User: Fold BTB domain-containing protein from Punctularia strigosozonata.
Amino acid sequence: MASRSMSLSSATAPNRKEWAFTYQATSPAFNFPDADVILRTPDHVEFRAHKLVLSLASPVFRNMFASPQVPPTAANEGQDWKDGLPVVALTEPASVLDALLRLCYPLKDPQFSLFDQVTAALEGAMKYEMDEARDMLRGKLKEWAEKAPVRAFAVACRYRWKDEAERAARAALRVPLPELIIHSQELEHISAGSYVRLLLYHKACGTAAAYPAHWGDWISVYHNDRIYLNCPTCHSDSSDTSHSFFGVPNRQNARVARWWKEYMDRAGDRLRETPLADVAEPKMVWQALARAMECASCRPRAVAEFQTFLGEFQAEIARRIQKVVLTIDF
Ligand SMILES: [Zn+2]
Assistant:
């Protein structure tokens, strides 16, 4: 009867003839002199490890070691046995196995410079049912959500991790919508429905974030005397509908300063495409204030009053985005 170790071995092990001519490197970090098992990777690296440690970290390894093993013979030396130790051939490359073993042994945690490394290690942790390693890698997913939100979202959906999916979707709001339409290997593991939910969430947040840039019903009546809503000099006349700003309470005919309206239009356009765009970034602010300086009435008040306004504007954007719900099917 085939043991689990044999089935793992047979999945990737080259034939005996190849073994005879293949040099096997030994992992420098996992070359314990008291090792009682050798893990061999397809890229020809051997890890001399301990069955006990592997068994404690992984029920898959525990079951594997509990199964009867092929006895050592002269014929299987080098393949199933080496230096008196059983050999288990795995499918993970050395870089992935190194990361997984570091999470099982009391060693420094692996460093991941690429998202592919995280996903490959996570896949191994799930395969070998290494709960501790999985939880640590799940934490890494949160870190990577900011750098690779679509990929992190796909991984979270694959493993049905709601918090991580929501965090990645939220991070995606810092990216323009067209840039979310990318292919990545992680998307192959989730449904089209899950991916479209991410895009629809982003779109809904864009609409919600842009609203306060175009409609003033959220603006407190206390703003009415501020120069950007009440400029006697640079406001547009009532026939110029392109400069109307609707919904300001008690100010149906607000004398909206031209520079402010231009800023709000730009902000609205940006927010629709990138809901978490920084509308108070220096470039946008200085562009608005430079225009304000052209108006004698706005000039002395614009800097202070616009600064106050920006804080309130950002808070309103955040409040509206917060109300948008990501619908996910798990
Ligand atoms: Zn003005």
Summary: The chain has three domains: 4-91, 116-190, 210-322. Residues 1-14 have pLDDT under 50 and may be disordered.
